[in-house]
Write the structure tokens for this entry.
Amino acid sequence: MLVYYSSISVQAKTIPLHPLKMGLLQNFLGQRGNSKGEMSFTDHIEDLRWHIIRSLIVIVIVSIFVFLKIEWIFDKVILGPAKNDFISYKWFCQLAKVLHIDALCLGAIQLKFQNTTVAGQFTMSLSASLYIGFILSFPYVLWEFWKFMRPALKPTEVKYARGIVFWCSLLFFSGVLFAYYILAPYTINFFGSYQLSPEFQNIITIDNYYDTMSDLIMGLGIVFELPVVVYFLSRIGILTPKIMREKRRYAFIILMIVAEVITPPDWFSWILVFIPLYILYEISVNISTRAANEKIKRDLTKS
């Protein structure tokens, strides 16, 4: 018999769950229980725990291999956009000649970095190794998550979700590469060359540089998952193409704000981010239409 809980007990205090959340949880656990046999709530938690453990093991293993080459990775990859010979700068200058837009060709930058703590470089190497380890392990982590979710889905839903790990990974890495090769060079170049006065020198801490790079890369990787999120929200009826079309003007403003937040304060970098975000939104509208049509056909088949 499948056991459900309508509240969580923590240190002798009972925390009631929201009815909607409880209904979704019961439906999810019920579907998994039907697919995998009789399972209690703790059985589901134990199953999830092993998916998480396997994911962490893979992340740690990949991170160890990254750590063994962390000096080369930091010099050639992480610090790449801060160097004048970075390949993106060559692409931008070639594009500037073709389009006759001189602003595309970025000027030379000379950045100086400093470490302000005793163990700063060592902790940075550990942090960067885990961060890169997670990015490289993303498809496997997603696959483990999908293995946990799959038993709760119906055969038709599994069919529609075919290839989800591939598409989510493709979108994630597309966002990561876009941030690294396009957005990061403009961001680093802008802030690295900006001066209030010639008396000030831009001597940047490695922590600040690393945080800027990691925020840009992870942020774009997550944002690029928009089409997948829209697809599943449309499949369960929370989001419809009609809503997305009617609220397009509001989405336009929100995307402008998002692009402004994750880019430096110059118009060209803002455009570089806003255009792909808006394209993703329009693609998501079409995806929502397809998902909604599939839902209608499914409902008609049931009736």
Remarks:
- The CA atoms of residues 87 and 106 lie 12 Å apart.
